Amino acid sequence: MSDDIAARVKDALRDLSIHVEAFLASCMADRDIPDALRESMAYSLMAGGKRLRPCLCLAWAELCGLERARALPFAAAIECIHTYSLIHDDLPAMDDDDMRRGKPSNHKQFGEATAILAGDGLLTEAFLFMTRAQSEPAQVLEAVAVMARAAGAEGMVGGQVLDMEYTGRVLAEEGDPVTLDQLRTMHSMKTGALIRASCEAGAVLACSGGVQRRLAKEYGAHLGRAFQIVDDILDEVGDEKSLGKPVGSDRDKGKTTYVSLVGLERSRELAEEATQQALHALERLTGVEPDWVDFLRDLAQYVLIRAV
Amino acid sequence: MSDDIAARVKDALRDLSIHVEAFLASCMADRDIPDALRESMAYSLMAGGKRLRPCLCLAWAELCGLERARALPFAAAIECIHTYSLIHDDLPAMDDDDMRRGKPSNHKQFGEATAILAGDGLLTEAFLFMTRAQSEPAQVLEAVAVMARAAGAEGMVGGQVLDMEYTGRVLAEEGDPVTLDQLRTMHSMKTGALIRASCEAGAVLACSGGVQRRLAKEYGAHLGRAFQIVDDILDEVGDEKSLGKPVGSDRDKGKTTYVSLVGLERSRELAEEATQQALHALERLTGVEPDWVDFLRDLAQYVLIRAV
């Protein structure tokens, strides 16, 4: 049964991401961008990956009744934001990672200056693409605000600052150890906010009022938490090939993880709890496209399966 | 007479920038931003400067009939974008500048990682602030698009890539020398685009149709060019105190400048020409607030005065 879910989710993600990739590829063509910059942006943007965040946005938009094509520019923009964050996180001054998705990281391939600028370019282009979503202008604006809040100083960027701070503390063996609460807050900003906002923005674009928007946000928040805990588990017990990086590399870098704080078994329980809460949000949806509810349910279960 | 103009412009910029600074200060307060990040963002954002770009946006918005308070969040956002670009340009991998506006540059004060993230944070917050402009949602969205295009890979970020490429060529004494056309294109992207877009976005926010928007863009493009040529002239003949950096520092870094390409006298002529073209755009405006036309005329002349 878990094989069935995995197969269904992979198929659905592949179908959705074909549209996202086609949009991204067309966006980068026919533009007056200096060659070195275009190449560096495209290198990371078209490096594959599951395209989870844009697919979440599309799924929630369609679930709430907005045609896929109308939400597509916005969904593609989210992938640009995610990609920029990976490029900047890999920089020598940050996590100093030489490899990403089995290829040299952006700064290894193009140099540090170009990598910083490719990230800046992707982040800025993202907001251009968002304005091209086809919905009520007031709703598009609201979705832009949701995304900027999630990606900015109170969200993803702030989370990266906390991550660096906590890691520095561990490596220097100074200060108080990181608590579970701090770890949770850090992750809800660093990775959770963008996943949550991808769902919420989909609902907002589809002009969905209070309840659906709230449930999208709730589902996204719990899914994001499950996703992060599973990531920490896989860092300990995953295999190098599917991880795309050595096992235990987070631990070696001084990162505090769910596993290092509460152990493997309790981490699995926490991931299971978060997944149940995500599913609970879906159960409370009414009057929406049932196929998309099925997809989002499968997706939440799939995230958990990886950790078992 | 040129003393009168300078005094008037300085007064007007000071009056406008009080509002911008108050808005920026209030934006950074009461937010759930990690302390280290907030401090680093505020350090550069509140470091003074003429606030030229937000003042241009406010002036064009008011000139076209939109109340100042309604455009203020958008104008403040433009200053966030400008500030982020200075932080990233100063990084060791880029221009490697230790000082900015008479203080240690952001990475000197807070370290490279925090400086990169402060820049990322400011750029992202900028798009949040833009959504708070009070005008027709479709117009706000269009103004966001204007700004993203100007700040992104086809504009400011692309211009910085070209600047690095040209500088590298000069320092390595390799490849063809930079031509006047290339220099002009590079500057129109790196510094011109944001100045032009500040004017254009003001008109767009005020729901101004074809002609006013086109004249705003034209004025901004010529003003931006004059501004850059004068900058190059001052790098040769200015005094260190008002420049905030050593005389000739661009030349020493391998930057090609208008002066290095066409000499001091021809550079002054080019600056004069650009200023005349900016003034010509203003002359063709009809049915707008005359006080703001006067301000924009003074401003264009003031830019030029500095170079004489």
Describe this structure in words.
The structure is a homodimer of 308-residue chains. Chain A is mainly alpha-helical. Chain A has one domain (2-305): Farnesyl Diphosphate Synthase. Chain A contains 14 helices and two strands. Chain A has helices spanning 2-28, 35-45, 52-63, 68-90, 106-110, 112-130, 137-151, 156-172, 180-205, 210-237, 240-243, 249-252, 258-283, 290-305, and strands spanning 99-100, 103-104. The first copy, chain A, has a two-stranded antiparallel sheet. In chain A, β1 and β2 (103-104) form a beta hairpin. In chain A, α1 packs across α3, α10 (210-237) runs antiparallel to α13 and α13 packs antiparallel against α14. The longest helix of chain A is centred in the last third of the chain and has 28 residues, at 210-237. The radius of gyration of chain A is 19 Å and the shape is globular. Chains A and B meet through α2, α6, α7 and α8 of A and α2, α6, α7 and α8 of B.
Give the SSE layout:
The structure is a homodimer of 308-residue chains.
Chain A: H1 2-28, H2 35-45, H3 52-63, H4 68-90, E1 99-100, E2 103-104, H5 106-110, H6 112-130, H7 137-151, H8 156-172, H9 180-205, H10 210-237, H11 240-243, H12 249-252, H13 258-283, H14 290-305
Antiparallel strand pairs in A: 1-2
Helix pairs in contact in A: 1-3, 1-4, 1-14, 2-6, 3-4, 3-9, 3-14, 4-6, 4-9, 7-9, 8-9, 9-10, 10-13, 13-14
